[in-house]
Design a protein that fits this description.
The chain is an alpha+beta fold. The protein folds into two domains: about 5-170, Rossmann fold; about 175-315, Beta Barrel (Porin), CATH 2.40.160.20. Helices cover about 20% and strands about 50% of the residues. The chain has an eight-stranded antiparallel beta barrel. Strands 2-1-5-6-7 form a five-stranded mixed beta sheet. Strands 3-4 form a two-stranded antiparallel sheet. A hairpin with a 2-residue loop joins strand 5 and strand 6 (about 145-150). Helix 2 (about 25-45) runs parallel beside helix 3 (about 70-80). It is elongated and about 90 Å long. It starts with a helix and ends with a strand.
């Protein structure tokens, strides 16, 4: 092997290795769980296509800020779900993702994949392909997208094109958070001085766990005009992220259920209040939280803790 060819070979190897982006194992698992759902949606739509795609090669690209090994995961997931399908059969195309280096004497050009139509046509003819299926994984803001396109080689036209998106706030590696919610409350029972309207304020401090939800400490208070602060309670907070638990990955946000039993103390005795409800979130914002709080224990029969309902809005800090 000549020195020039050896240099080109080494350059190809370096280019291949450099495409592997560093990512935490937790992040890769989280992204994989979302991509599994998006791949399932894509294959489900593909099965409904009336026109057969014949022999197809799958080409996958992954955003630079994600783990590049996800390309193999997505490809394997789609191939596995397409096994036994009548309208399409997957053909392995290693040339479609190969790294190539060329030199014109003065300049060395390194390319990966199908970089021009001529090369694509040659590979398609060699393998007897009918369709190229292009899949690209993108991470933009709070969304993870799987963009899909199927191109007919003989007709030179697009057979199918669709983008599947999911809300993916967990791609932030930060898990420690502080949340604050504020909103109007309505006192249902044991009103102070007969007042029905109040202001509900609550805070949460703790950790976020992907695939589960949040664990930490919750503090809540209700404020009125006559009695500035009552029903103040603090205790363990547990939140369940339903989207991550059940794989309901939506493009517009997430839904959480939470429970926050709290200890309350005053000169009239001590009590335990239970607060719970549901939250709809988008990004760092709580779009709407519907919650209910009621006493479950009091050591003083004369101490009447109010029961209230509230609609609050808030923000989380990481």
């Amino acid at each position: 092997m000549s020195l020039k060819n050896l240099f080109l070979f080494a350059l190809c190897i370096c280019c291949t290795l450099s495409t592997t982006a560093s990512a935490s194992p937790e992040e890769s698992r989280a992204v994989s769980s979302v991509l599994k759902v998006l791949s399932r949606h894509f294959v489900g739509d593909l099965k409904n296509q009336k026109e057969p795609w014949g022999k197809a090669a799958i080409i996958v690209s992954v955003d630079d800020n994600l783990d590049q090994d996800l390309a193999g995961f997505v490809k394997g997931e789609v191939e596995r779900r397409l096994e036994g399908q009548k309208n399409v059969s997957v053909v392995q195309c290693f040339q479609c993702e190969a790294v190539r280096a060329q030199s014109d004497g003065n300049t060395i050009v390194v390319e990966k994949g199908l970089t021009n139509q001529k090369l694509a046509a040659e590979i398609a003819q060699e393998l007897g392909l009918d369709t190229f299926i292009e899949l690209s994984v993108l991470h933009t803001g709070n969304r993870l997208s799987l963009n899909t396109k199927a191109i007919s080689i003989s007709k030179k036209q697009t057979l199918f094109q669709r983008s599947y998106k999911a809300y993916a706030r967990f791609l932030s590696n930060k898990s420690f958070l502080l949340g604050v919610d504020v909103g109007p409350a309505y006192v249902l029972k044991n009103r102070q001085n007969g007042e029905k309207s109040a202001l509900a304020v609550s805070a949460f401090l703790g950790e976020r766990f992907h695939g589960f939800g949040q664990l930490g400490i919750g503090v809540s208070s209700i404020f009125t005009v006559s009695e500035f602060k009552f029903n103040q309670a603090s205790g363990p907070y547990i939140g369940f992220n339903l989207n991550e638990i059940f794989g309901w990955y939506w493009p517009w946000g997430e839904m959480n259920l939470f429970a926050n039993p709290g200890y309350s103390s005053s000169d009239k005795g001590i009590g335990v209040l239970m607060r719970g409800g549901t939250k709809f979130k988008f990004g760092s914002f709580t779009i709407l939280s519907a919650e209910y709080q009621t006493p479950i224990y009091s050591d003083n029969p004369n101490k009447k803790y109010p029961t209230s309902a509230a609609l609050t809005y808030g923000i989380e800090f990481y």
